[in-house]
Amino acid sequence: KAGVTQTPRYLIKTRGQQVTLSCSPISGHRSVSWYQQTPGQGLQFLFEYFSETQRNKGNFPGRFSGRQFSNSRSEMNVSTLELGDSALYLCASSLGQGASNSPLHFGNGTRLTVT
Amino acid sequence: GENVEQHPSTLSVQEGDSAVIKCTYSDSASNYFPWYKQELGKGPQLIIDIRSNVGEKKDQRIAVTLNKTAKHFSLHITETQPEDSAVYFCAAPQSPNSNYQLIWGAGTKLIIKP
C-alpha cells in the first residue's frame, strides 16, 4: 500500500503571498489531519477533515484553511504569508475512528520557507 | 483540556545502553497513550501505544509503562542502536470522550553515541 504523499516537498514563498499544499492519504483512509511543526513549538494541530467536512480545528488564524475532496485528498492553503509561517507542514491520514482506534500515518511533510 | 509534558528534550546515550523518556499528562480520564518516532527528513511513525487498562506493553527492545496514579507514562528503549537516533513524541487524547485528536509532547531528541 502506498503511504501518505505530500507535495511539494519544498516551497519558498515571499511574505504576503499565498500557498497551497497537497496531501494524498493512504487508500481507504477518510480522515486527513494537518500539523505545523517548528523547532520551538513541536507538533501543532491545524485541522482535520473527514468525508469532506472539517471535523476538528486547532488554534490557528483564519489565514490557514483547508479542504478535502471526494477521493479524500486534501489541500491546505495559507494566505497572506508571514515570516512566522515558515515550518514543516505535515499531513496525516487515518481511518478516522478516533485517535485511540485509528493510528495516524504521516507523510514526510512540505518544508515551507517564507522570506 | 489535556496537557502533555515530555522530558528530557535531548537525551544522549552510549550505544548498547538503555534510554528512558517520560511524559506526564493532566487529564485523569485519558485512556490512550501513543509514542511516535520521527527520523530525519521523515514524518512521525507510530512505534508503540498503551491503553489505560494495562500497565506495561513490550515490543522487542521497546516498552511503554503507564502509571495512572501519577499520571505519567514512559518509553523505554533497551540495547540502543544507531538507528534509534530520532525525535520521539508522546501524545494523549485531546478529550477522552471524543478521542479524535491528540495533544503532543514537545519531543525528545535521542542521540546514540557510537
Polypeptide structure, described:
The complex is a heterodimer of chains A (115) and B (114). Helix content of chain A is 0%, strand content 52%. Chain A is built from no helices and eleven strands. Chain A has strands at 5-7, 10-13, 19-24, 31-38, 42-50, 53-57, 64-68, 74-78, 87-94, 105-106, 110-114. In chain A, a hairpin with a 2-residue loop joins strand 5 and strand 6 (53-57). The termini of chain A are far apart. The model of chain A has no long low-confidence stretch (mean pLDDT 94). Chain B has strands at residues 4-7, 10-14, 19-25, 32-38, 45-51, 56-59, 62-67, 72-77, 86-93, 102-104, 108-113. Chain B is 0% helix and 55% strand.
The description of the largest β-sheet of chain B is: 6 strands, mixed
Question: How many helical elements of chain A?
Answer: 0
Poorly predicted regions of chain B are none
Q: How much strand content do the residues of chain A show?
A: over 45%
Series of H and E elements of chain A: EEEEEEEEEEE
- What is the average per-residue confidence, as pLDDT of chain A, rounded to a whole number? 94
Distance between the termini of chain B: 41 Å
Described by strand count, sense and barrel closure, the largest sheet of chain A is:
7 strands, mixed
Low-confidence stretches of chain A: none
Q: What percent of residues of chain B adopt helix (DSSP H or I)?
A: under 10%
Compute the CA-based radius of gyration of chain A: 13 Å
Order of helices and strands of chain B: EEEEEEEEEEE
Structural class determined from secondary elements of chain A: mainly beta
The rough form of chain B would be described as globular
Shape of chain A: globular
Instruction: Please report the total strand number of chain A as a whole number.
Output: 11
Beginning-to-end CA distance, first to last residue of chain A = 37 Å
Largest interface: A-B, 20 and 25 residues
Please identify the oligomeric state: heterodimer
Tell me the structural class of chain B: mainly beta
- Average of per-residue pLDDT values of chain B: 93
